[in-house]
Design goal:
binds zinc ion; two-stranded antiparallel sheet; DNA-binding; Dna Ligase, domain 1; alpha+beta; three-stranded mixed β-sheet; Arc Repressor Mutant, subunit A; binds manganese (II) ion; 5 helices; homodimer
DNA sequence: AAGATAATGATAACTGTTATCATTACATCC
DNA sequence: GGATGTAATGATAACAGTTATCATTATCTT
């Protein structure tokens, strides 16, 4: 991929302008809502092109892939199964212990994904009330 | 679910008899190969019924769900992206640091999944050779 | 043995995603 | 500026994994 078309520019701007974790459909709808014209296939291709340029990041959740802006330091995710809120966190010790665990098994790591599920503070309070 | 049918028994026996991580299709084919007659829908229903009984465990990978026998202690997974090998590991400190990270964000954890990707020892050697 | 209920299996339907392919937009060279 | 090669677009088909539908069958309880 070489051409940074107006569609891909629009996708990139949208994602860069927020801290959300977008799925392909949300991106498409948000762009169409601003009056842009973009096909869903173009969104999928654009997202994966932008990701392989390193311009955006992604996490693969159970059902679908979600994209977020790049440039933040590495982090993992905590997902509220009640309201869908996605919280980011990072923990250097966890990261290095992962490396250690891999080494112990003779694995050469290329990546990892740690996802934690539970209830965010707000949802916990609402459920307790 | 209350009825332990021959089909579900067969699924359970198959999974209990190995350390593999099975997807639905593999289970179906393995059972058909032994001469059993079982529909793919029944396999899906059986797997999820057995899981909610706690009789088998699962991990949700990017593309599909995989089932393994229950009863092993909690562990996470390391996957070789070259040969598909799935190695299990557990690390108490990582587990408790996860708890700590969640608490810091006000999250009440209900579960988590840590998957590491890379090259297993064998594949690393083959690639170096 | 009956009756109630849950499971089965073939298949349709659904979701997220990639492939196809004709058309369009860019960029480059003349 | 115009021809030409190349990559992107968009509508839509296809695909994988999974769940839903529904008539039929098996299992459990009395
Ligand atoms: Mn991490
Ligand atoms: Mn763990
Ligand atoms: Zn929440
Ligand atoms: Zn390997």
């Amino acid at each position: 991929m070489q051409k940074l078309t107006s569609q891909r520019q629009a996708i990139l701007n949208l994602i860069n302008a927020s801290n959300r974790h977008w799925d392909a459909d949300e991106v498409a709808r948000a762009l169409v809502d601003t009056g842009a014209s973009i096909g869903i296939a173009t969104v999928y291709r654009g997202l994966s092109a932008l990701e392989s340029q390193g311009l955006i990041d992604s996490i693969q959740l159970a059902d679908k892939k979600r994209y977020e802006r790049a440039g933040k330091a590495h982090h993992d995710h905590m997902i509220c199964t009640s309201c869908g809120r996605i919280e980011e966190f990072s923990h250097d010790t966890i990261e290095s212990l992962q490396e250690a665990a891999a080494e112990k098994k003779g694995f050469k790591l290329t990546g990892h994904q740690l996802v934690m599920f539970g209830f965010c503070r707000k949802c916990t309070q609402e459920l307790d009330a």
